[in-house]
Write a structure and sequence with these properties.
SIR2/SIRT2 'Small Domain'; NAD; NAD+ binding; alpha/beta; three-stranded antiparallel sheet; Rossmann fold; histone deacetylase activity, NAD-dependent; EC 2.3.1.286; 9 strands; Ssirtuin_cat_dom
Length: 248
């Protein structure tokens, strides 16, 4: 029995399966990650995405956000990895997704129970009054965008350096990790904290771990029961084949 058959058997036998996704699942949608050799941090200073920098130099931060948003996010589309996870949920083979990504692609693929640990790039929030805005494309016509309610500076509704994880997302993620008897890590090496600790909590609570990554990660030797080496699209397609799931 090969690794994909073993992984499929674990999925079929599981009472509660949770997926934990990172940048690797969206790379094949044209969205580069931040930390790899060709990642976005090669072109952007990470401090631009700190909450203190936004407060001091909002125009510079928003200029970088606009470049990334239009160049990498606006034209990105869901790939078959996102769609397979959505299909698994429809077939009661996946209960939830905890994602570190801010690209909204899981929801666009049809996944319903998605916990966005780091927020979502499609919305903005006022730093002063807390008003929320959904039409980010329109907002980006003026840099920096300001609140129509109070005139305060807007911030994308994702986590900046120096900000805490939203309490609700944190609680829901750890609840899922606690309930899961199967935890599927996809496209993340566990380098970003505190998100990187979630799979350890799942393991502590008895979950079996399937890992899909191009190379070994911080999880592989300590946590992983089955390692499926490869890109998310190809690996999840093989898993789907063994589960009898096809995308029409």
């Amino acid at each position: 029995m090969n690794s994909y058959q073993k992984a499929a058997d674990l999925v079929k036998q599981s009472n509660h399966t949770t997926a934990f996704t990172g940048a690797g699942i969206s790379v094949q949608s044209g969205i580069p990650d931040f930390r790899s050799e060709n990642g976005l941090w090669k072109n952007y200073d990470p401090q631009i995405f700190s909450i203190s920098y936004l407060s001091q130099k909002p125009a510079k931060t928003w200029s970088a956000i606009k470049e990334i948003y239009y160049e990498f996010f606006v034209d990105s589309q869901t790939n078959s990895a996102h769609k397979i996870l959505a299909e698994m949920e429809k077939n009661n083979l996946l209960d939830a997704i905890i994602t570190q990504n801010i690209d909204n692609l899981h929801q666009e693929a049809g996944s319903v129970n998605v916990i966005e640990y780091h927020g979502n790039s499609k919305k903005a929030i006022c730093l002063d009054c807390g008003a929320e805005f959904n039409d980010l494309e329109l907002l980006l016509n003026n840099i920096p965008p300001v609140c129509s309610e109070c005139g305060g500076i807007l911030k994308p509704d994702f986590i900046f350096f120096g900000e805490p994880i939203p309490q609700k997302a944190h609680q829901l993620a750890y609840l899922e990790a606690e309930k899961a008897d199967l935890f599927i890590i996809i496209g993340t090496a566990g380098e970003v904290q505190p998100a990187g600790q979630i799979p350890f909590y799942a393991k502590e609570n008895g979950a079996k771990i399937i890992e899909i990554n191009l190379k070994k990660s911080n999880y592989s030797d300590e946590l992983t029961n089955i390692f499926l080496k490869g890109q998310a699209v190809e690996a999840l397609q093989k898993l789907a084949n063994n589960l009898g799931i096809s995308l029409e």
